[in-house]
Amino acid sequence: MMAMGIVAACSSEDKDSEPQNPEPPAETRQEVKLLTRAEDEMIGTVKAGLYMVNYLSGEPDELLPSNNYVNNQLLTWNQGAWATATPIYWSDMDTPADFYAYAPYVSEVTDARKMAFSVSADQRTDEAFAQSDLLWGSVPGQSPTATDFDLTLQHQLSRLTVKVTADAGFADGELLVGDVSVTIGGTCTAASVDLQTAAITLVEDSRADVQCHSNGDLSYTAILLPQQVPFANLIQVDWQGNKYILQNTFTLEARRQYTLTVKLKKTKSGFDIGIEGWDIIPEDFGGTIGG
All domains of the chain, ordered by start, with CATH? Predict the structure, then answer.
């Protein structure tokens, strides 16, 4: 677990639009300082987006599709620190604000209430795997303060891990990591995300096979959108060109990790795949980035 203090930066989006609130005089401004947290250790370069919505007339306001006080400000985490271009300032020391953050960063968000997002159909590389992992967090009604406050990012999608084991017909050591690949079939890979609520709406015609990321120990993981997967070739294991297929339906819930162990066995007529059972872990993947 690692802690990271950041000073957020002012948005450069929507330059042609009037901001939600005018910028106060420089001599009266107080920087917004926040501590962003998440469960997983952040490795390499990570980019996140930040929105800030001021309370108008003392009441909370909706996150707009665009033209908020701060719009999709890029935050970059690299080598243990957040980098931003310019600071964000409170409108004044009496006006609370709502904050919304997400990762990975999407450079062109035309509608914050319907942000287009997709998981990669090929998650075999570390980069594609990481870019498929949607994180989101919010802080409602934060009063202006000169000190840091916390913004926690939580995983919003599902993780499915397939563990592959050798059964009857395989010799010891015959089933090797480099000879195996795993694909998840029948899932929607594209959606829109409401950055105010984290609600996800699937794009139904985006169903595609997803190639899993190898964990290096005959286990393979894919990050998938929450959904009800219809009856399909759910698990497809390829071993040296021989395909093992498990047909099933499955429900993927947000912020859940699922583990499925499959046993491969050779038969006189070819190959077969067996299912040992679902191991559903109701784990909350929200956590701390920083501290």
Answer: 5-155 (2.60.40.2620), 158-281 (2.60.40.2630)
> Which parts of the chain register pLDDT below 50?
1-19, 269-271, 285-291
Residue 67 CA to its chain's centroid (Å): 24
Q: Please, what is the average pLDDT of the chain?
A: 83
Write the CB contacts of 157 (distance below 8 Å, at least 6 apart in sequence): 119, 132, 133, 134, 223, 224, 225, 226, 254, 255
Gap between the Cα atoms of 96 and 99, Å rounded: 10
Please give the sequence-ordered ranges of beta strands (E in DSSP) within 225-256, or none if there are none: 227-239, 242-252
What pLDDT was estimated at residue 290?
A: 38
Burial zone of 177 (CB within 10 Å; 0-12 exposed, 13-18 middle, 19+ buried): middle
How far apart (Å, rounded) are the C-alpha atoms in residues 121 and 212? 9
Contacts of 212 (CB under 8 A, 6+ apart): 123, 124, 162, 181, 182, 183, 184, 220, 221, 222
Tokens of 127: 């980069």
Residue 106 pLDDT: 95
Which amino acid is located at 101 in the chain?
A
Residue with tokens 């990669």: 120
CA-wise closest residue to 237 among 266, 257, 212, 216: 212
Q: What is the CA radius of gyration of the chain?
A: 22
Distance between CA 5 and CA 72 in Å, rounded?
19
Please, is 225 exposed, middle or buried when counting C-beta atoms within 10 Å of its C-beta (0-12, 13-18, 19+)? buried
pLDDT at 137: 93
